[in-house]
């Protein structure tokens, strides 16, 4: 396409947006609203998946409490039995004494309180590291069958809940987003219809003097795409500001530790930006095409 | 230049609009297409502009069979065959200059060409001094002359005029005819569908008469031949 034709087409696109200001604003807002909600959902889902992922790497161990009356030999052989289970990468023994010492450490200045105990209430335990979180269920059930094992503790439930919740939010969110995007497409298609109607005479003349079909179509296609794109940019801005303030709030008012489990603002933007741009422009182009096919006979 | 070979056109609703049309129009000819309403004049023009397809036969324009053209080539056909209508079809929000320049812009002409060509055609239709005015400031005859200027600005080889004087009083109609004759003398083929008896009779050009979808008369230096 020649450069001056491109200039003309672009000029017509902006004219179209300005001519139907009201509908243009409605189109942009609907895209922005849909994508902002999508962004919100992504903030939740991405963070939960991220957290679940972190949990999987950090909680790949299972704590096995032993019965109190075992002999050192029995403890030793129990350890060997545990190592023999497939899916176990290695085991560490933690005696009740070292468990108490660790607890004292963790309690810090309040550690002296533990000195008043007459008897060490903590059990001996093994910390069993599994090779992959997926096998932990089987490992746990096998550990439970071993004689001398009192209780098995692990964090699979938390991770499962996290993954299940992320999945639920994702499916409900997707349904909502699909409906919102359909509404946005419909509104854009109506906006383009108005522009087509306003330019009916012009289009008729263009056809009779030999303008190519694409020369007639481009301005409408660009108009719709621009509306979608602007909507996406606004949504991205809103999500950015929203996530930034949530992130800051968590980092300053709650725990710095906890914010380490969240995706950084930059990472969040990196994951949403391209998606928003493609979705926004796509919704706009689709809306235009629907109207072009229905109302523009070229 | 234009050749209709055994053209038939039956519309989907069963109306037989054209029934075996054979006609040759040479380069630079001025041809009147006459006949009662419903004789097939409009269909004839629509086939030439490729707004309708013939049911049978072929149409040659500039030695090319346009019935075989794909839809994609139609815009390029319309740069060769230009058309003016009874209702002028000007853009009210544009000046005369802009109305004519518009036809060049949308086919991708260079600004330099536009600046040279638009004043020239406005001169040809005698409206050089009105270039900055808007259509609503013009008489019917002047509007039609602007529409002619727009139709010829891309240098078509054929100009179709569909009842160009239909909305005009006799005096302004003659202004328009003078312009058309001038364009014809410069080598553009002109095909004019009309009901204007006095114009056809005075111009003394070729007259093709259609009735019920057939050519019933084709006379050089002909007359209108119907009572008005």
UniProtKB/TrEMBL annotation, chain A:
One of its GO terms (biological process) is cell division. Residues 175-295 form the ABC3 transporter permease C-terminal domain. InterPro entries: ABC3_permease_C, FtsX, FtsX_ECD, FtsX_firmicutes-type. The chain crosses the membrane at residues 21-46, 172-194, 215-240, 246-264, 276-296. It is found in: Cell membrane. Gene3D superfamilies: 3.30.70.3040. One of its GO terms (cellular component) is plasma membrane. Keywords: Cell cycle, Cell division, Cell membrane, Membrane, Transmembrane, Transmembrane helix. Residues 62-152 form the FtsX extracellular domain. It holds the Pfam family FtsX_ECD. It is a multi-pass membrane protein. Belongs to the ABC-4 integral membrane protein family. FtsX subfamily. This is Cell division protein FtsX. It comes from Anoxynatronum buryatiense. The lineage of its organism: Bacteria, Bacillati, Bacillota, Clostridia, Eubacteriales.
UniProtKB/TrEMBL annotation, chain B:
GO terms for molecular function: ATP binding; ATP hydrolysis activity; transmembrane transporter activity. The keyword Cell division applies. Keywords: ATP-binding, Cell cycle, Cell division, Cell membrane, Membrane, Nucleotide-binding. It is found in: Cell membrane. It is a peripheral membrane protein. Residues 2-228 form the ABC transporter domain. Homodimer. Forms a membrane-associated complex with FtsX. Part of the ABC transporter FtsEX involved in cellular division. This is Cell division ATP-binding protein FtsE. It comes from Anoxynatronum buryatiense. The lineage of its organism: Bacteria, Bacillati, Bacillota, Clostridia, Eubacteriales.
């Amino acid at each position: 396409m020649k450069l001056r034709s491109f200039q003309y087409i672009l000029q017509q696109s902006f004219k179209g947006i300005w001519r139907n200001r009201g509908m243009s604003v409605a189109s942009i807002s609907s895209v922005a609203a849909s994508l902002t909600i999508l962004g919100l959902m992504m903030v939740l889902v991405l963070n939960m998946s991220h957290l679940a992922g972190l949990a999987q790497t950090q909680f790949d161990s299972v704590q096995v409490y032993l019965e109190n009356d075992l002999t050192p030999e029995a403890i030793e052989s129990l350890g060997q039995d545990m190592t023999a289970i497939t899916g176990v990468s290695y085991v560490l023994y933690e005696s009740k004494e070292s468990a108490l010492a660790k607890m004292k450490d963790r309690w810090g200045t309040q550690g002296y309180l533990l000195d008043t105990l007459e008897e060490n209430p903590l059990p001996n335990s093994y910390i069993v590291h599994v090779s992959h979180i997926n096998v932990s269920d089987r490992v746990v059930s096998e550990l439970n069958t071993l004689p001398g094992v009192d209780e098995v503790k692990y964090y699979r439930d938390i991770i499962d809940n996290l993954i299940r919740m992320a999945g639920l939010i994702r499916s409900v969110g997707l349904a909502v987003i699909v409906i919102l995007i359909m509404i946005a497409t419909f509104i854009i298609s109506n906006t383009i219809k108005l522009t087509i109607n306003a330019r009916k005479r012009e289009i008729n003349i263009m056809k009779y003097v030999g303008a190519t079909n694409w020369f007639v179509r481009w301005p409408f296609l660009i108009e719709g795409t621009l509306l979608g794109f602007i909507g996406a940019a606004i949504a991205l801005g809103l999500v950015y500001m929203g996530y930034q303030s949530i992130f800051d709030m968590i980092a300053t008012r709650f725990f710095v530790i906890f914010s380490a489990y969240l995706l950084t603002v930059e990472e969040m933007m990196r994951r949403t930006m391209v998606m928003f741009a493609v979705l926004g422009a796509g919704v706009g182009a689709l809306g235009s095409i629907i109207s072009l096919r229905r109302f523009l006979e070229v | 230049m234009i050749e209709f070979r055994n053209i038939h056109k039956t519309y989907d609703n069963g109306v037989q609009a054209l029934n075996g049309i054979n006609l040759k129009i040479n380069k630079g000819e001025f041809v009147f297409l006459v006949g009662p309403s419903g004789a097939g004049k409009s269909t004839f023009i629509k086939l030439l502009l490729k707004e309708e397809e013939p049911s049978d036969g072929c149409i040659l324009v500039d030695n090319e069979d346009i019935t075989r053209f794909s839809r994609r080539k139609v815009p390029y056909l319309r740069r060769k065959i230009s058309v003016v209508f009874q209702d002028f079809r000007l853009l009210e929000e544009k000046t005369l200059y802009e109305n004519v320049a518009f036809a060049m812009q949308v086919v991708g002409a260079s600004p330099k060409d536009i600046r040279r060509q638009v004043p020239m055609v406005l001169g040809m239709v005698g409206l050089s001094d009105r270039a900055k005015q808007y259509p609503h400031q013009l008489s019917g005859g002047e509007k039609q002359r602007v529409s002619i200027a727009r139709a010829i600005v891309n240098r078509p080889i054929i100009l179709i005029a569909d009842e160009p004087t239909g909305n005009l009083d006799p005096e302004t109609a003659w202004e328009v005819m003078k312009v058309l004759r001038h364009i014809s003398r410069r080598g553009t083929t002109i095909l004019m569908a009309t009901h204007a008896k006095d114009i056809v009779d005075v111009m003394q050009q070729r007259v093709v008469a259609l009735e019920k979808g057939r050519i019933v008369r084709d006379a050089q230096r002909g007359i209108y031949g119907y009572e008005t």
